[in-house]
Amino acid sequence: MRIQVSxxxxxxxxxxxxxxxxxxxxxxxxxxxxxxxxxxxxxxxxELENGLQxxxxxxxxxxxxxxxxxxxxxxxxxxxxRTGFAHLFEHMLFQESxxxxxxxxxxxxxxVGGTLNGGTWQDGTxxxxxxxxxxxxTVMWLESDRMGFLINTVTESAFNNxxxxxxxxxxxxxxxxxxxxxxxxxxxxxFPEGHPYNWQVIGxxxxxxxxxxxxxxxxxxxxxGPNNATLVLAGDFETAxxxxxxxxxxxxxxxxxxxxxxxxxxxxxxxxxxxxxxxxFATTAQLNMVWxxxxxxxxxxxxxxxxxxxxxxxKKAPLYKVLVKEKELxxxxxxxxxxxxxxxxxxxxxxxxxxxxxADIEAGVFEAFxxxxxxxxxxxxxxxxxxxxxTDFYNGISSVLGKSFRLAQYNxxxxxxxxxxxxxxxxxxxxxxDVIRVYNTYIKDKxxxxxxxxxxxxxxxxxxxxxxxxxxxxxxxENVETAVADTKEEIEKTPSAFDRSVAPKEGExxxxxxxxxxxxxxxxxxxxxxxxxxxxxxxxxxLVISGGHLLxxxxxxGVANLMTDIMMEGxxxxxPEQLEEEIELLGASxxxxxxxxxxxxxxxxxxxxxxxxxxxxxxxxxxxxxxxEEFARIKTKTINDIxxxxxxxxxxxxxxxxxxxxxxxxxxxxxxxxxxESVESITMDDLKxxxxxxxxxxxxxxxxxxxxxxxxxxxxxxxxxxKWASKExxxxxxxxxxxxxxxxxxxxxxxxAKQSVINIGYLSMARTNEDYFxxxxxxxxxxxxxxxxxxxxxxxxxxxxxxxxxxxxGTKIPGSFTxxxxxxxxxxxxxxxxxxxxxxxxxxxxxxxxxxFTKNALIKSNARRFETQGALLRMLQDIGxxxxxxxxxxKEEAVIEGMTLEQHKALAxxxxxxxxxxxxxxxxxxxxxxxxxNAGFDEVLMLDKDAKEVKLSDVKM
Length: 957
Description:
single chain, 957 residues, alpha+beta, 6-stranded mixed β-sheet, MPP/UQCRC_Complex
């Protein structure tokens, strides 16, 4: 894992850009830097008379453009008692504007084949779109309308709706998750009252509930003017056309109030502060220790980033050595610095193994500090961190959107998109002496904030002398709809030089251009697929071995998952630490994971290091170390992960849903990770037997995308081809029992849950079924996108949820049709009914307008489909996994284009039957279960977290 913080991600992804902009390819002999010389990021910056700063970057590699507008306003511009406004207003800007009707921002961008979203953090707010290049003017129209022509449309009803949506987001991301309130406790106590970082971006619930339209209008007028914004346009455009559009749409917007740059407000602590909270969803304890540091772009901030990596990441890290290996207090350690615009903080985060004391972990942290001081830092330590930054940089600019983000953030926070070169120089300048210095300055013997989040009733696990944190838990109340008078007043239009109510014409859409690919079969039976993409000096690859969880036995569920963990723990000739270091020194990443139907080895590396990276993959695959010490650690970590997830409503929902749909006799009814009992029973011999029986090139496919041709790609596989012998592997087939004949309401109790997780559906069909893709197209307007009917009602109309979706999930094995959402607890019953009613109504057919919207959104979005190496790799994986033609996307496009209203209706009636679905609710039974008893379901059952029926007499209501 690389450095984890937002600002550092920017600089991490920017490393060695200096070489890009200053080094030229002078001779063919410069092979080591040959790839670097191919890339440059040119930009032009100028300013409109109203203060809007514009950055243009041409990139004609794909027929798309990205527009990003970053405002100089985040939660740091709010005031005590009025928190959450920046994030709330981010939502408001998606509602409507004077010339764009309600709920049309998403729909209009999807209708041209684009995608859009926004984001708010402590220091900024950004909105972005990626569209086919012919729709660039549509984006200019939409973004300028909400910048200069919005405030008259902010009504009480629209405002109240988004208040609910934001509160639901808080419930989903904070209140209903283990350790969700941790950041609140930390920031309240490390930053003093009134400091701009004292509150959370999401805001205080009471502030969100008390906010008024007048508050929002005042905030908008202050911070959302052109003079407080940067517009970045990146992609395939002509500069003269772009400048003319920007001037037309943004030039007439009036400058607003001046916004002064915030002054640095670093903080210090006079004493250590210690807090404890009994967490409703935690099953193991978690410790956080946080020290105040410095703002971004300072010399110390760069060194602190390195310090976090050195203290916690990897097997050489002292926190790992002490807390994981020596004391077995945890299975993972994390440390990172987060330097923001006006202040910073350094954080150590450790989730304990079951039953382990946070007091012991705190003591272990200081023991690790002593080890760090004694062992010191080597030059190799510094270089191995830097080695991965070049690869991360290229990954970060692999899309036009990524480039837009980088240019926008440098312009807003450093005043110059070109600051990237200085930023990189600052990173390159970090030395081991710098790291030791910042450790001594900010961490060693300095006061800190420490939080202990422990399971209910387990206060003995908290760090010593902890006081109760003042966490405010929302009280579950009966749902009361807010009545807002609909005045239907005509919106006052802001004057404009042209008629903004007329949407611009799109122009001709880019034609589908499926990248050419190649494939072959090696002599050992392994199939190989590739695409050459020359934009970046990178290669992304995956080796997919069929089987995975399907090959687990019922009494040893989780063997496949443990296999992928143990095989990354060293090789026959390399210790786990040595293997990790060799990968890092190449600037590469190699990961291994298990899915329901495969084991996957994935990798990302600079092309110049592909051969060496593949040598390591070969060694990992063919020469396992079978390290007993690491196996014990992995088992402990896995068991603790299973126990922790048992309190996560989303994980409970997934596990129970699979058990209900597939039944006890199908392996998919059991989680890939296994159960506590099964993992405890697994031995190293089980893993060795699984490996001997099931790893074979005969059931494997290798995919590679990058700046590499077929010959060089196959050459990198030469040793693997000759050394990896084929064997016969039989993958079990399980009977799919798809005979549901009634509607069943299943309820799993999570006491005091602030949201209910809803999964509704039944088993449907495999990805290989000829109806699968047509049915996916049919589903699009029901719930396949933000503009799906269920989301528009549950989120945009009712404000019950942060999002609602429906979809099919088949693979080679029949999957489910599922409708899902997390809703405010006191709207659970209403939400289930809305899902049920909307699925039933959908079978009556959709309008011609909705069908055209579906076709436009799905067909035109293909212009964005082939931009990144990751997207191309997924396409190759689909081709190999489902035996698809290289141009299968063109065939899918023909299916979309040819769909009629009659076909759409027939598919809906064939594959949607709400009267036979399972309706699963994970929530607070005491307040929500009773109303389902007489709601028209064929059966209403209470289940436990293992999907076993619970007698109602045993439930405390």
